[in-house]
Amino acid sequence: MESEKSRNGVNHFENIACPFCGIACDDLEIGPSGSGGLKVLKNGCARSVAGFERPLVEPSPEVDGKSVSLEEAVATAAKLIRESRLPIFSGLGTGVEGVRAVMALAEAGGGVVDHALSTASYRNTRILQSSGWLTTSLTEARNRADLFIIAGSDVHTSNPRFFERIVCNEASMFSDNPPKRTVVFLGEGLDQSAAKGPRVGEVVTIPCKTDRVGEILDTMRAMQKGAIITDETIGGVPRATVEDLFARFKAATYSVVVWNPACFDFAGGDLTVQAICEFIKEANLTTRSAGLSLGGNEGAPSAVSVCAWQSGYPLRVSYANGKPEYDPELYDADRMLAAKESDLLVWLASIGDDLVPPETDVTTIVLGTPGLKLSRKPKVFIPIGTPGVDHAGRMIRVDNVVSLPLRKLRQSKLPSAMDVLASIQAAL
């Protein structure tokens, strides 16, 4: 649980959850750094340092590039939504409370809801919907797994502390002397630098192309069923290498296959997720194995979860007809903007500075961090605070198991996304 204490006469915070990565590490120490800024004192990574240590800037809202009051910006945004034929609410880089407010505003305004990163998350969703999967939690993987297979995904880039927190931890809840682990990197060019320490017994590299990872998993699935494989190479690697990986898998007491769907950005990328999930499901007839999907940055798990419990559907939902209608192809925000099927984009980016709207001629309202790297001025820009920095909130972790509390760490005049969105809805 987060706590606040005095160190050398200056208040600082312990056990703080980080909103800047889907893992939401909750062991950070944060202190002040002059002029309203913050300093990561302990357990930070490059992503958390960049986020927490952003300078505190409190600009005025803008309409047509001119500074206005918050009330005027809210009124203009409400007018645009009220007059819109079909608004799109996207970006959705926020926590639970922000997404709840987006859903309410979309329902009131008759719009479409979709997260900026949903193309990647739908590689998972399609498989979960069509054939199901067997996944684990970060905590279960941390404490039980003796074999990690990193499948075609550079997870150290997307989730910098995954290896430190989950794979290389020395302690275990269930053993005073936990066994060493094997880490297999299945893919080309994956960052292996963090897979080290006394808990890691062996690191194995299988440099296959990312779009051929599925072939190897499908072949191992056939091996599980007793098929005789005669091809000299499988997925571009020697058959003996795949046979060795399968032998390691069979010998493990608890294996975890890890992937990030954003890394499968090629035609049929969701079929790679399917290959992983089908292999895991069938393996559990004789052994213990589970999947673990990572990524989940910019509040994506919160958006999927809140949309599901509010509407019954996991994003790509339209309220144009006064009730939630789900179509993962029709209500893809990127496709709709490219086809000019909408006349208004409402973009929410309260976490990172890089979650910017796509290039479009559609009138745009942006609720974003003051440092958001916009390529051009939107019709309306309302600067908002970051959950877990400028105001309190909650965020769903990437394994979809827990909702972590986010604490207000500094005095800021920046309003929360929830408050601004509620004000816009009230002005409709």
How are the SSEs ordered, and which strands pair?
Layout: E1 3-7, E2 10-16, E3 28-32, E4 38-42, H1 46-52, E5 62-63, E6 66-67, H2 70-83, E7 87-93, H3 96-109, E8 112-113, H4 118-130, H5 138-144, E9 147-151, H6 155-158, H7 162-167, E10 181-186, E11 200-206, H8 213-224, E12 233-234, E13 237-238, H9 239-251, E14 255-259, H10 269-283, E15 289-293, H11 300-311, E16 317-318, E17 325-326, H12 333-338, E18 344-349, E19 363-368, E20 380-383, E21 393-396, E22 403-406, H13 417-427
Helix pairs in contact: 2-13, 3-11, 3-13, 4-10, 8-10
Walk me through this protein's architecture.
With 428 residues, the chain is α/β, with parallel strands linked by helices. Helices cover 31% and strands 22% of the residues. The strands form five sheets. The chain has a nine-stranded mixed beta sheet. α2 crosses α13, α3 crosses α11 and α3 runs parallel beside α13. It is globular, with a radius of gyration of 23 Å. The two termini are 39 Å apart.
